[in-house]
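S1.2 Input.
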Amino acid sequence: MRSRPWITAVVVGLLAVGAGGAAFASAGDDGHAEKTFTLIQHETNFALITHGPQPAAGDTIVIRDDLLRSGEHGQATEKVGFDNIQCTVTFDSHILCHAATELFGRGQLTQQGVIAFPPPSSFDTAVTGGTDNFRGARGEVHRVQLSQTDSRLTFQLL
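S1.3 Output.
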């Protein structure tokens, strides 16, 4: 696969992640997950499936990240899960992204959103569901880019 100049813009935007508190999604006394928590997202795998030298409708980006607990000062600490992200280039300078997040011993969260292309350094996507402690979850994830491979995610569940 040949390198494409627009790949960097996509990766940087997709890895952008949000500001917020330093709590992790731990089960409360009632067995439900906390409503707001922050994780550090660290890219471990990246694949790009293209149909030509320029971004075009149908091109696909697939990413796998480790998810790390966010420490007191925002630094990454222990691995608490992973995510898989798939984005498809659509029309009018946008990409459609879907993410599945697995938090060890807690359950899964799904997210999706339409994002400008190339992506901005921070953006929000919708939480569309979950399993186990996150069953029926709804809300938002705010993403802010920290580096070429790291982002901060702030989940705000309803």
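S1.4 Remarks. The mean pLDDT is 82.
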